[in-house]
What does this fold into?
Amino acid sequence: MSQDEKAQRASTSRTSIEAILEQWRRERPDINPCPMAVCGELKRAAERIRLGIVANLSGTQLDLAGFDVLLTLRRQGKGCSLSPSELAREMMLSSSAMTSCLDRLEKNTLIKRKSDPKDRRGLKILLTSKGFALADQLVVTHIEAENQMLKDLTKREIEQLRNLLHKLSSPS
It folds into this structure.
């Protein structure tokens, strides 16, 4: 996509949100619709990020949850493992969703389950060498895609955005 097309797209996005705000101002002058604009922009940004991740995963047989599991395990370090409940907690998934995700990853030989030596009833999940290599490959392309999305922002703007988003996502 050319720079002109990107600028046009951004302008159209901005215009449509501005049009929505103007409609609300006209129809309900007693309310301030600005929070709608902020939340709308956040939703659009989140969708753009999601689509970027999905594009990065094309050809890998991974879905978003599988990608998240691989990267969560990879950042623990080589040979490290987590229990399914630890993974679910880190990823905010239900235990049933986690089990399905782990089943798919195990079927594709990206993870293996092993008995927890500290708890005979428990399991630990670790990356196979294939899963480790895929996670290492994907994290590089993932960060490249994220850098591409943020390329029009200065380092200062990125830090400000990160701080504002942290403030929004932290419990009050």
